[in-house]
Specification:
single chain; globular; 8-stranded antiparallel beta sheet; 525 residues; 4% helix; mainly beta; Tachylectin-2, Chain A; Jelly Rolls; 2 domains
């Protein structure tokens, strides 16, 4: 079976992968979106579906509840390491905003909400390492450290945290981080990314580095095992796991910054030569490769949804923007619909709770939903949105008993890095807000957003906004929204269903049905 790169045409960064029998399981980073730390499953390495989430929420506090001006944008669940050890599954990730490391375990990897242990301190970009009947975390940025976990995984062995070795700093813009650790054939292999400084006529790009050790004394050998930017010059493909299949074939999955769609993973074969892993074809990422599996299709990680559900349980493809208010949404209050209720006033999209999101996919994604606004009150605004730093929305807003279709977007030049680094309030001041509106005299309207992401960040990427009264004849509305990736959110573009009140606490509600997703192939049918 042939697999073309990238493996995912959507945001799926910081992967780690383990194999259980003939199935592969992958964990990825979704930052502030909840539930956190999705576990994906595949039987053929080509088709993946979301099987579970490691945790439903991180903390019940202002940061994760979007209260009192606090938020977790650009933070949250980060670079999870995944391991199977003595018939139990373990995962570990850092939350820099909480200044904690979270260790999880379960006996069923496809069950959500694992058992949790909190470790004080930040073990940045850690990886599990099983070595000589002990389990360690290897972590750090440049200064690579190691710490031993207790036998029962209840915490850290006191006094075990120490420096393992230091990685080169001269001529390096980003020192080694993003660890993936393995023991094989009497060797310890530690894989990292780094990034050299730019040189005259040559831009330094992210690359994958392997350190090889015989023991934990810190003595090592070092080798560059992947240094390729493939189809997006200046954006190196790096950071991810190596793993084998049941027949002993080895693979690697590494990701690349890919514009507004996010960070997209690439699959490649791995050969072992002279005791070193060689990634791809002579250290280069292939456009495609053949794997020895029968194709087993799944529903994918982006899906349509009728919202006709008997219980208040979301399909696994959905994530909330931050932790949801579970009293403010329902499938059962009006069967066949998703109901979002407005319980507190906010001024803009990024402050609103209960925005329900999915990833978007390159090169083309189209999303449509039907909105019944008969339950709305004055101040309510509900519809579809593009969730990014410079966001855009199309929906229905009610004021003084009258409704309008409103297209609302952040406008102005892209915020510079120094403004991005100051957080959401600084960005709110930087961008102006542009609005277009037309009167609405009916209770139901179809809303649509079309994403064009075929440049993968090397050219213009856009979203367009539409409304319709019959779901077929679309009317384009407002200006096209330029899209870009930003470290303020640290995630790719998302489609979102939103509803909030701009004026009052006792708002009404919005009812949504028939959320429809179409990709490039479905568009051309």
């Amino acid at each position: 079976m042939k697999i073309c790169n990238p493996l995912f045409r959507t945001d799926m960064p910081d992967p780690d992968i383990i194999r259980v029998g003939d199935n592969f399981y992958m964990v990825s980073t979704t930052m502030f979106y909840m539930p956190a730390a999705p576990i994906l499953k595949s039987a053929d390495l080509k088709h993946w579906q979301i099987a579970s989430y490691i945790c439903h929420s991180i903390a019940d506090n202002d940061i994760y509840q979007l209260r009192n001006g606090r938020n977790a944008y650009g933070k949250g669940q980060w670079a999870t390491s995944l391991m199977r050890y003595q018939e139990r599954f373990y995962a570990c990730f850092v939350c820099h905003d909480m200044k904690k490391t979270y260790l999880f375990s379960t006996d069923d990897i496809e069950k959500s909400d694992w058992d949790r242990t909190e470790l004080e301190g930040v073990y940045h970009d850690m990886s599990f390492l099983c070595w000589e009947n002990k389990v360690y975390l290897v972590y750090g940025n440049g200064e690579i450290r190691i710490v031993e976990l207790k036998k029962d995984f209840s915490g850290i062995v006191e006094g075990s945290d120490r420096l393992l070795f230091s990685t080169p700093a001269e001529g390096i813009r980003l020192r080694c981080e993003g660890c993936r650790a393995y023991g094989k054939d009497g060797w310890i292999y530690l894989l990292f990314i780094d990034r050299p400084e730019d040189l005259p006529g040559k831009r330094g790009i992210r690359r994958e580095i392997c350190y090889r050790l015989r023991d934990l004394s810190g003595s090592y050998e070092r080798k560059i095992i992947l240094y390729d930017d493939m189809w997006r010059p200046g954006c190196g493909i790096a950071q991810g796991p190596i793993f084998d299949d049941a027949d002993g074939n080895w693979y690697a999955v590494m990701f690349q910054d890919s514009g507004a769609v996010g960070r997209a993973p690439f699959l490649m074969s791995v050969e072992w030569k002279d005791g070193w892993p060689v990634l791809g074809k002579d250290g280069k990422v292939p456009e495609s490769l053949t794997v020895p599996f029968m194709e087993k299709k799944t529903g994918g990680v982006i899906q349509s949804d009728s919202f006709d559900h008997r219980e208040n349980v979301l399909k696994k493809e959905w994530q909330w923007n931050h932790a949801p208010d579970h009293e403010a949404w329902s499938f059962t209050e009006r069967p066949g619909y998703l109901r979002l209720k407005n319980r507190k006033p906010v001024q803009e999209l990024l402050e609103a709770t209960n925005t329900l999101t999915q990833r978007v996919g390159a090169p083309y994604s189209e999303f449509q939903v039907n909105l019944d606004c008969s339950g709305m009150k004055d101040g309510d605004y509900a519809g579809l949105c593009v969730l990014l730093e410079r966001y855009g929305q199309i929906g229905v807003r009610q004021k003084k008993g009258k409704r309008c279709i409103v297209m609302k977007r952040r406008a102005g030049e892209r915020a510079p890095s120094e403004t991005v680094g100051k957080g959401m309030e600084a960005l709110k001041e930087w961008y102006s807000v542009a609005e277009s509106e037309i009167p609405l005299t009916v209770d139901r309207v179809w809303l649509k957003i079309v994403f064009r992401l075929d440049s993968w960040g090397s050219g213009a990427e856009t979203a367009e906004f539409f409304y319709s009264f019959d779901g077929e004849q679309d009317c384009r509305f407002g200006e096209e929204l330029p899209l870009f990736y930003s470290l303020s959110l640290f995630t790719g573009a998302r489609i979102g269903i939103f509803s909030y009140n701009e004026e009052r606490e006792d708002g009404g509600w919005a009812d949504f049905r028939e959320f429809i997703y179409r990709d490039q192939e479905e568009r051309n049918e």
